[in-house]
Write a structure and sequence with these properties.
homodimer
Chain lengths: 193, 193
């Protein structure tokens, strides 16, 4: 087990409905040392990709993305969730369905911050059905920039998102892939990587 | 002028309606080196306050708060904006009015992450009318924890928020206080500190 898998076992909690609570260190209270360790790990996995920008989506991806961007010495851009129906022409837009909140968000990135020369590393905390990542890929490619990789803290391996993105040919690296969770026993099983 | 004021002059843009756009380095695309410099500056200003936790609100406060928390070696907690009417009993809640989006958000922090022993440093990117900060103060004090300080990147000194919070007796430090902006001339005047 790697450091993130160990931490999930130690401090994560399995709730009914395949919910994995990691809010004490990853997406509500943040352990900055852990963020930095993840940043270094993603740097090692993507250091030859020529990354010029790290892209994430608000809110809980931001902390990890900061640590990653620091390792690469590049700016971090976060996509914003927008409720406005009227989006002006200066932004790239994608629609992202949220299963947690049962709604569709418009997600936007200003055109100023992505350009055709950019090699973009997309970072997020969770991957389940993959809607958020697909939105970030779509926004990046709309700008003419290249998605050189995707780095995820925790992937729910029993949901479809990871498979779809790998099938599309992207280099997707997840630090922990949950294969199975049992809320009654409180157990988590990780995929061997 | 300090490093942040210089950066605002260099890369900020003044728009009609007292809007200061700093999205190329502070709240959409983030300059991580600048975040870290702000982190160090807040550390210097609050290093004797016994800070045990850094609290911010999603989304654009998160990056600065991470850099601050790293300097102190403490966890960072971010308050979440919640659309749910039904909030369970495990969270502290405050209502925060947004003038930008013309709505009221419920802002929540899980009770697990604030306790009476905590000495909390509240961090945010912008201070205008102060509603968000008041919500974070209210949440912190609901938990029995102490607000030992508030650190803001950019305060709009011509709006009421900063005065109210200082009048209440809190130690509020803003790295840049904008006294005046002129959209036609594109000028920004800072308060001497």
């Amino acid at each position: 087990m790697n450091f993130l898998e160990e931490r999930i076992i130690k401090d994560g909690a399995v709730k009914p409905g395949n919910v994995l609570k990691v809010d004490s260190f990853l997406n509500h209270q943040m352990d900055i040392e852990l963020m930095d360790k993840m940043g270094e790990e993603f740097y090692n996995r993507f250091k030859d990709a020529g990354v010029t920008k790290v892209l994430t989506i608000e809110a809980s991806g931001i902390a990890i993305a900061c640590s990653v961007a620091r390792c690469f010495g590049v700016p971090m851009v976060f996509a914003k969730k927008s409720k406005s129906v009227n989006i002006d022409g200066d932004v790239y837009v994608a629609e992202v369905e949220s299963f947690t909140h049962k709604n569709v968000n418009k997600v936007i990135v200003s055109k100023k911050f992505l350009n055709p020369e950019d090699k973009v590393l997309i970072i997020d905390d969770f991957l389940a059905n993959g809607c958020a990542l697909q939105g970030l890929i779509s926004i990046t490619e709309s700008s003419g920039a290249e998605v050189v990789g995707l780095g995820i803290a925790i992937e729910k391996g029993f949901q479809i998102g990871g498979r779809v993105i790998r099938n599309l040919g992207y280099k997707l690296e997840s630090l922990a892939i949950v294969e199975e969770m049992d809320a009654e026993k409180g157990t988590v099983t990780f995929r061997e990587q």
